Fold:
Amino acid sequence: KAGVTQTPRYLIKTRGQQVTLSCSPISGHRSVSWYQQTPGQGLQFLFEYFSETQRNKGNFPGRFSGRQFSNSRSEMNVSTLELGDSALYLCASSTRGPPGYEQYFGPGTRLTVT
Amino acid sequence: GENVEQHPSTLSVQEGDSAVIKCTYSDSASNYFPWYKQELGKRPQLIIDIRSNVGEKKDQRIAVTLNKTAKHFSLHITETQPEDSAVYFCAAVGSTLGRLYFGRGTQLTVWP
Structure:
């Protein structure tokens, strides 16, 4: 099976702009979770989508949003970018049912905000 | 919510030695504990996991142990090799399915 893919791999944006990141899960996986990775904060959970519904949400401001499509592909959007949003954004897919708690990560999108 | 603590933050060993990384968790409802390896510039890769109904699991040179009573679990790597050098993350999944709570990571360096 093909792994989790993310596009784009790299992005440079200016403060105040908005950005959309895309994630395609492993075929058959219906759950997509998003994480922000920074050197200072480690891996922080953003949100999880399952069958087009947001099931869980982390402690991020409303500028961070997401959605999931009927084919399980997911997008996340960050509006009004701030310098602190510079990070590696990772998505992970899972079957989300026992024993399928296993989450498999994509390569990430490296976002730089200047 | 769950809180996962991981120690040590850095670990240096000689090739061939063993390495142990320890994690504790706070939520007694947590029942799945994966370990991820992340090499520089690459994605986190699931290397081994354990469920709460099992006390130990092995896969070649790596093993994970779980003590539910004490709420801690550990990763053991034997006969370390330079290619084991990476950041290792422990995580826990509890009542909130689909959400991994990560430890802060351990930078493992294996010297030849």
